[in-house]
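Consider the following assembly input.
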Amino acid sequence: MGQRIIFQRQPRIVAVSTIAGTKECEGIVGRYVETALADDMFGESTYEKAECKMLSHVIDGAITNAHLDRGEVDLIISGDLLNQIISASFAARDFSVPFLGVYGACSTMAESLALAAAFVDGGYFRHVVAATGSHFASAERQYRYPLELGCTRPPQSQWTVTGAGASLVAGEGDGIRITSATLGKVVDYGITDVNNMGAAMAPAAADTILTHFRETGEEPDAYDLIVTGDLGALGSRILKDLTWEKGLDIGENHIDCGEIVYNVLEDEFQGGSGAGCSAIVLNSYLHAKMMAGEFHRILFLATGALLSTVSSGQGESIPCIAHAVTLEK
Amino acid sequence: MGQRIIFQRQPRIVAVSTIAGTKECEGIVGRYVETALADDMFGESTYEKAECKMLSHVIDGAITNAHLDRGEVDLIISGDLLNQIISASFAARDFSVPFLGVYGACSTMAESLALAAAFVDGGYFRHVVAATGSHFASAERQYRYPLELGCTRPPQSQWTVTGAGASLVAGEGDGIRITSATLGKVVDYGITDVNNMGAAMAPAAADTILTHFRETGEEPDAYDLIVTGDLGALGSRILKDLTWEKGLDIGENHIDCGEIVYNVLEDEFQGGSGAGCSAIVLNSYLHAKMMAGEFHRILFLATGALLSTVSSGQGESIPCIAHAVTLEK
């Protein structure tokens, strides 16, 4: 049957909500973010609690922006980068709504959106929230080093976005239509450098993009934009090389959320990353541009690196995945 | 719309596969397990790699038992207890099949089965594998203490099952029909004792069971068995009290996978737990009994405790969840 699902009823994103940290709101994308944090701790005592509060804030925001009551929401699908996805689970605790936890690392926005679309398209539920987020400080101390150590970051590294985004998917109403989803395979090219996520994830993105265009028979110019989640500058170059080698030139209309989320300063090196990266770019900037009629058709593809500190410590390479959804307005 | 999904096309479990450790295979359930490990390391150098290999083994087993080639499988849905669900992600790397990672702790078997049924029922895919597993030693060192410390276990604790199970869900063929799924909410009664998962999870199980019977209008005797995942002996007693208080008496036909998975010996205390617990009981013992015509209708309900060592360390209580699927033969 191929890897692609076609949503006959064309479920739509009827409302979105985003929140982002101080650094994220300095960039161009930041101008489109709904809530700009003045303090990355969000009034909480720990980074993890701040991350959870951001996620809860955008889930609530998307419901409110859709003019719905919480009782009218049938399902929340969410995940994050933390061990046992505590941000998503604890955020879901605030809502008396059924919950499905997912884990796809930085691919979570596309995974949860594809699942939400399937549940609505299948006629199982009317209103489903897909949400994810990340926090720079909680990710650093979990995956790398506590910030207090002041470790030097290598030039191929990326900066985990502090932010969260949510989409409310419904069966009817005005919004961005989700017309198909291409679910990705786990791809591992043997990269072991945990500071070079772009290189690890690019082959997974290439695999899903090539599959998508092979199965649809479309050309890249059928889309205004082909958007990857957080490959960063280096990973995006690798992606373009990998697809070009296979006869597909996406150079004209490819952008990467990680590349555009920050004003390029020295310390982010390759750009942004984290589940929150594609979540805020999709649900703020891209959503606004689509609703304004500037973009009509986008292939949104979030990529995830499925490693843990334990797997890396045991000498494993980094398996990655990318899921794509087609968005139309 | 309620929390319940009705699967009109009645997707079915056409094949299963299970594997379990030495201790698990000593019990009554163990006689029904497909592959009995002689060595809980499964020939690997670490517990985590053994867990991953078990999961890979049962995914492959379910595909083989369904007389399918890997190329005919459209999707693998899997998750586990480890940080960043590395067992599931690394197992999926072995298969060139689209993958969705989920996290629901010990509720993963029900969550992945409900998702698999939705994808098949919606007509999106023909063959979907739902799988999960756990390993006693990897869970102990991640959630509690390294085994080498020889810590004393408190009497309210449970023993994480070493084992994995997979179900192959298809749109047609002979098998156990999945007729509905009731997706659970996150429920938190404020339990903070990380050694007493049964008490933490029982309210979530009660919430989903009460919702299921309220929405269906059925009585408990409409089922041969109401099966919970891994509440253990104490948690099962709490569940029966909580539902009885709300006017629903499930005492007659309730069993708990954690309670039956081991011969009761001193060191398991309340019984088994872990994502592998309900996975092996469902895909070995319950599957065999249903196929033999001994049970016709089962409400299978796996429960998960959505905590992490970080959340507990930061003083949080334990949010829990339970998803239910109705199985008929």
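The longest helix of chain A spans residues 197-216. Ask yourself how this observation constrains the way the partners meet.
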